[in-house]
Please model this.
Amino acid sequence: MGLYELMREYAVETKVKRDSSTPTPELGFSLSLFHAGLLEWGLEYGGSEDNPKLTASARELDTAHLSYFVVAFLPFNSVTQKEEINHVLFDVYSFFKWLDKTRVEHGLAKVSLMQLIKDLCSMQERCLKLSHLLDSESGRVLEDLPEIIHTVNDVFSVVKIENEKVFLKGRRENETVCLILPSHILPLLKLNDSMDLVLGDTSEKWVLLEAGQVFPAIPTQKLS
Model:
């Protein structure tokens, strides 16, 4: 059974209130957001482009998906109040506990979910600030734009930080690229951070053309 069908079954069984303002009102507000976040990440789906439904298995979920949802997706999708974020996260946590109760296998079954969510929330401020600074840096580059040979749009992971150089590897691209960033940005960067970026190749160097969401990598925390 795919993730949409599992969320739908959970919503029916627990009598989740419909929310007509969401793309999937039958899932309610919180799970509709979670469903939309996983779609945006790129998990497999079926149906039309106008009405996609996740067909990916719950076994495919890992800590990166939750990191993306909590740190990157929620703040950029009209969920800004702490109380509202906490409500959404509690609902998502309850969905995972229901999966456990109904013995549905999922990729976060051996993770301490409460601790993971707590850790992710504590990293949200750093990542939002980093996203803002990267966006400002891209604006500076665009003011005096060099000749660009080609561009790459991908979610890049930080694999190395050396002086002012940041080495990045894309999710789709195999090649590691080197980006030079200002010194005031570097202290906020952590190894394995993921960043949604558009980079331009000038033949001499890579430059930042556009910056989006930033979210951290989280080591798997086993249940005690």
Notes: The helical segments are 3-13, 28-41, 63-73, 82-101, 113-143. The longest helix spans residues 113-143. DSSP finds five helices and seven strands in the chain.
